[in-house]
Amino acid sequence: MTILIVGATGTLGRQVARHAIDEGHKVRCLVRNLKKAAFLKEWGAELVRGDLCREETLPPALEGVTAVIDAATARPTDSLSIKKVDWEGKVALLNAAKAANVGQFIFLSILNAEMYPEVPLMEIKRCTELFLAESGLNYTILRLAGFMQGLIGQYGIPILEGQPVWVTGESSPIAYMDTQDIAKFVIRALSVEETKNKAFPIVGTRAWSAEEIIGVCERLSGKDAKITRMPIGLLRAVRSSLRFFQWSWNVADRLAFTEVIASGKPLDASMDEVYQVFALDVSETTTLEGYLQEYFNRIMKKLKELDYQKTKGKGKKPKRSPFKNVNNQ
Ligand SMILES: NC(=O)c1ccc[n+]([C@@H]2O[C@H](COP(=O)([O-])OP(=O)(O)OC[C@H]3O[C@@H](n4cnc5c(N)ncnc54)[C@H](OP(=O)(O)O)[C@@H]3O)[C@@H](O)[C@H]2O)c1
To answer: Which of 67, 280, 298, 312 has a CB 3.0–4.6 Å from the CB of 104, allowing a cystine?
Structure first.
């Protein structure tokens, strides 16, 4: 089976590529920057230069491909808008996949997208799901919540560095999942017939509020968090002012996501049936506490090593923060 992965340099895409290669699949990755994607080649993937927003690059990448896994999304820092990448680019990819007679298309969506038509990325995900379902392609849609990898930058590092941790008024609990566990579901979908032409939630073992996550980080790091509450009204004002400038549209569209987080509605779903269909075992899924525990253990070990080196090295202080070196994104 030859799989084309789009978005393989991303947080989730790289785990999908790694797992697909480990499972013995032939993996091709459509990438915008060959240099940035060199690690994928080292793992054994074939690299094809392309861009969702350059339609002509898609048919050559799809030649001889059995299945497409789409893990791409507009980068907040990119000049290309969410509409250009996540809508127009995806429509082009789906049309090209149909023309290339691809056997299966796996799309990574967001849980509860239909509940937030005012949030651009949510509305685009809902529309893409519909477009895919009506495309005539065999498909599997996986609806994700948050990634545990994002928690390190959001809570872990600021708490360790004594920096403020930002929290919106009422924060919705989110069932975060480790991207390595999500990757197992993605690759399993390629071989389990019952996943064809269906959508499934893929979420972590339980939903956590921001306050609960901060509590876990405080306990594991032995430090108190400096919590700064951001009123949702202020975020809305910042967002509308950012919409004013085209270069900051992506940031504004991302900020719209705070509506989801501040809604108070949990981003969570039952996974009992999903584990059965995918024949995976919930006891093997990383818990949020387990994930953070591993992160802080490695940090503490690193700090001890640095302290030892400092004592040995005439008290020279490390110039860079040690915390960023050990997160496993
Ligand atoms: N992050 C979350 O918490 C979360 C939650 C729910 C669902 N999801 C969904 O999960 C999927 C993966 O998200 P992620 O956070 O792993 O993404 P990410 O880390 O932001 O990576 C985005 C990927 O898309 C690629 N990309 C961007 N624009 C492109 C273009 N024009 N043409 C081709 N490739 C392009 C990027 O390539 P470059 O390296 O070249 O920029 C990168 O590989 C997305 O569908 C996302 O909506 C994410």
So the answer is: 67
